[in-house]
Amino acid sequence: MLTEEGPYYGPVHLLTDFGPAAAPYADRVRHIMENTGGLHRIEAALALWSGTGEPEPSISVLAEFVLPIADGGDDYRLFGEALRALARIGTFTPATRAALRTVRGFDGRLAQERNYEAFLQDEELRAAIDYLLALP
């Protein structure tokens, strides 16, 4: 089945609940991570890490949703999802750390919403950035 993000691969994100028991599905999850976009890619990256325990290539894929924000991008929804995934993994690339420092210094809101929810989303994103930057 096709969705607006491409083929539907089912609830890949549910594999994260199984941890190492999901390891036999690593090749399929890696395929999804490498051949989709957006949220499916983020979910697959997190599921791959959860199943294998290896941060790479997941953290490099997640970096692709963080780095553009530091360069003026505005897809804060996927940025937020990537931040949550990185927080679960507990590590990230040096380039991601540099990008997070840049984004943390932005004066404006980090949320896409332009209503009362923007304040809450902004606070959530900034808290996630602070948490990640506090990691060794």
Q: How would you characterize the overall build of this protein?
A:
- With 136 residues, the chain is mostly helical.
- The chain has a two-stranded antiparallel ribbon with strand order 1-2.
- The longest helix has 18 residues.
- The chain is globular.
Please provide a brief summary of the model:
The chain is mainly alpha-helical. It has helices at residues 26-35, 38-52, 58-70, 76-89, 94-104, 117-134; strands spanning 2-3, 6-7.
Descriptive keywords:
disordered N terminus; 136 residues; two-stranded antiparallel sheet; 6 helices; mainly alpha
Strand order of the largest sheet: 1-2
Task: Tell me, briefly, the overall form.
Answer: globular
* Low-confidence regions: 1-9
Order of helices and strands: EEHHHHHH
In percent terms, what proportion of residues is strand?
A: under 5%
Helix and strand composition category? mainly alpha
What Rg, in angstroms, do the CA atoms define?
15 Å
Helix content class:
55-70%
